[in-house]
Amino acid sequence: MIYRPNGDGTYTNIASGASPHWDQVNEAGDGSGIYTNSVTYEYDTYAFADPTETGTINSVTVHIRCFTDTAGTSYAKAAIRSGGTMYYGSEESVTSTTTSFSKTWTTDPKTSAAWTWSNLNSAEIGVSLKYGTGSYVNCSQVYVEIDFTRIGGSYARAIGL
Length: 161
What we know:
This protein is about 5% helix and about 50% strand. With about 160 residues, the protein is mainly beta. It has one domain (about 1-155): Jelly Rolls. The strands form two sheets. Strands 1, 3, 5, 9, 11 and 12 form a six-stranded antiparallel beta sheet that branches. Strands 2, 4, 6, 7, 8 and 10 form a six-stranded antiparallel beta sheet that branches. A hairpin with a 2-residue loop joins strand 11 and strand 12 (about 155).
């Protein structure tokens, strides 16, 4: 299942971009999105619709699409907020070529146990951006992919694409 942001989350710390922030990163496509020229990491989190499925959650993957607006390298990290705490993927180098990055969590990073639907429903997805060289670092998409096994067999469904 794929879910795109449907509201701003707890944090909208990325300095530049139109408001609301979630509306700048919730569609398939590569518009300007949110952006910053901060030399320290700034981050946003976003709400997404509560999944109504049942079964075993195998993994939760946060996907981001990022680019710089001029030659140079900046940095981005996929993020998730679980149980009130922020968790990040690896620092990724971002260039002027729009590139997809992701981080997969096979367990809830807050509990180190298997994801539960309740914990997932209260989680927020996000992105963290840091300017390196060039002008701005941009993020045009953030979305979450939930891999799960339905009770009685596997099941996959794409929502919100």
